[in-house]
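User: Teach me something about this protein's shape.
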Amino acid sequence: MAGPPARGAGFLKQRMRAPRRAGLRGAGAGRLASAGLSLVCLGMSARIAPAVRPAAAPASPPGAHLSDAGVAALPSGVRRLLADLSWLLAVQYYGNRRLEGAPAFPELGALVEQALRLDPGLRPAALVGPLLLAERPPLGAGEPERADAILAGWIRRYPGDFDAVLLRSLLHTWHLRDPERGAALLAAAGARGDAPPWLVAVAARSLTGVGARAAARELWRVLLERTDDGRMRSNARTHLLQLDALDRLDELSSLARAYERASGRPPRGWEDLVAAGLLPGPPVDPAGVPFALDEAGLPGIAPQSPLAGHPGR
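Assistant: First, the predicted structure itself:
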């Protein structure tokens, strides 16, 4: 396997000239998590040369003394090299603090923000930096609002970077405890005409999880219209049937509670509701498999049904 290219003078010239690109080159949060883990590995590599490992972040990030006008006046190549240096210092600072067992990362946010101030197109800082900022100590800086602000600014600049949209949605769901907002971010991105099918599917599942079934249905139908992939189309149809099943379960739950109020006990089986005139017969899900009814009288999709494993209930 060929190794990375040598980084000599030619690399520096190319680095100074090359435009930044924020295009999507993959799918899902796995790659973003891997990027975060790779930063930890980079920090661990400081063990190789402990004598040169600094104990703390620099007094100020590269170029921090410059005004916005001063930054804008710099040649683009200089700005990008200073941005790379600031991001490298952020990575080194995080790794060293983790190795030393430090409980906090007070300088991490300033280093990440300065890297993006110098080069607003520095994608690793914009996507991986928030991962480290959002994690609670001792794994990260515990600053999810700051992380969200960085991601929001990046998405405003690059609205087609759907990896960033997914990451921001996960941040709202996990760190800011706002799954509804996370689902809404995905839904807005999934409704774009250039949204990849994987994002539409993730958005639809997220909406189902927070109870927004009508919006989820719309996205699954959008996916059916946009893709010719057989597996994706089959998955979309299955999820549409699952949503129908969830609606039916709500109706059956209401009937079961009505029976319990009238008889003083939960139904032991569907035959109780049939005998009470609440159902014409044992109900089946959209796949034709009878719904289950547990000992507490709560209905559900049977484990043997192809619709089992649904989100949102």
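Now, about its shape. Residues 32-142 form one domain. The longest helix spans residues 230-263. If you'd like, I can walk through any region in more detail.
User: That's plenty for now, thanks!
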